[in-house]
Specification:
two-stranded antiparallel ribbon, Rossmann fold, alpha/beta, 7-stranded mixed β-sheet, 7 helices, rod-shaped
């Protein structure tokens, strides 16, 4: 808008000057002091000179505006460059800090992590090999009649624990074995009892569906005469007057499932599952020990877990006549016997 007003002023001034010049030339021509032809030529030349002068002024004005704009652009560019430079410097500092942190992690944490990972992998590798060896030894030793045996490990007992159970069975030859929990281990224990030539197994199972699956496994291997899977839903159990009892009820297998059991020679505690209650397997000893033979053995699976360690320590505290020792196993195992009188 300023440019338009500026141009209008100059054009008005030029028009006024041109009008005055034309009036002077016309007067001179009328007074015959100048020919009309000369007056016209002078008028044209004056108009051209005026246009040149106006354009010159406009160019000068425009050049000044450009210089001002150039200085402003230069100042803005400098400010932007300085800002970008500062941000870039901060970015470089941040990247340097990150790079240094990565160097520190690489120098300190990675070797430790690598060592721990290598240790874990080596341990897992040794465990895998040991379990494969134990499984092969069990199969070769028991000579099962079925071509396929149920898998061990995971939810089921690991082969190394099953190998310990088979050795214990063959050494002590119990008349009655009670298993807290059922499944693949019930079949392997059934074959071990058949090989020893004596004894039977009663497996307690809190899940009706899983109890039926375990019975089907037992039938598939023709072990119904040795292995009995009893459905025993979880029910509130109270310690009563046993030594060390604190009176707090907790869920365990329905006691009706063990009412007829006497002279138990081996108890394998592998249930109920840990998720059913805190120290879910604790009632096994206070419930079953009164029904056990004097030389009975209790084997606790998963003894490396925190809950099972608490159960184990609680058994020893509540029943002073018990003794215990550890056996090497993937998931930990602890063997309990009565102290010699």
């Amino acid at each position: 808008m300023r440019s338009l007003r500026f141009r209008g002023k100059y054009l008005a001034a030029a028009a006024l000057a041109g009008g005055v010049g034309l009036a002077v030339l016309a007067t001179l021509a009328v007074l015959e002091m100048l020919s009309w032809e000369g007056a016209v030529q002078l008028a044209v030349l004056g108009a051209i000179a005026g246009a040149v002068a106006v354009n010159t002024l406009l160019v000068v004005r425009f050049t000044r505006r450009l210089d001002t704009l150039d200085r402003r652009i230069g100042a803005q560019a400098k400010a932007v460059t300085e800002a970008i430079g500062a941000d870039r410097l901060e970015m470089i500092k941040s990247l340097d800090s990150t790079r240094n942190e990565l160097k520190r992690v690489r120098a300190q944490a990675l070797p430790s992590m690598s060592a721990e990972l290598s240790k874990a992998l080596n341990l897992q590798g040794r465990n895998d090999v040991e379990q494969q060896v134990a499984w092969a030894e069990l199969r070769d030793h028991l000579e099962p009649s079925a071509p396929f045996m149920p898998s061990l490990r995971g939810w089921a007992a690991s082969p190394d624990v099953m190998r310990l159970l088979v050795r214990t069975l063959e050494k002590h030859r119990p008349e009655l074995v009670v298993e807290c929990g059922s499944g693949a281990s019930s079949v392997w224990l059934g074959y071990a009892l058949r090989r020893s030539g004596r004894g039977r197994l009663v497996a307690l199972e809190h899940s009706e569906r899983y109890a039926e699956l375990s019975r089907r496994l037992v039938r598939d291997h023709g072990l119904e005469d040795i292995v009995e899977v009893r459905y025993a839903p979880l029910a509130d159990w109270s310690p009563g007057t046993e030594d060390g009892a604190d009176g707090r009820p907790q869920p365990w297998y329905d006691l009706a499932a063990v009412d007829d059991l006497e002279g138990i020679g081996l108890v394998f505690v592998d249930g109920p599952p840990e998720a059913t209650a805190a120290q879910a397997r604790y009632p096994a000893v206070p419930v079953l020990m009164p029904r056990c033979a004097p030389d009975a053995i209790v084997i606790l699976d998963d003894a490396a877990r925190n809950d099972e360690r608490k159960i184990s320590n609680r058994w020893l505290a509540d029943f002073p006549d018990l003794d215990a020792h550890e056996e090497q196993a993937e998931k930990g195992v602890r063997v309990f016997t009565r102290k010699a009188l």
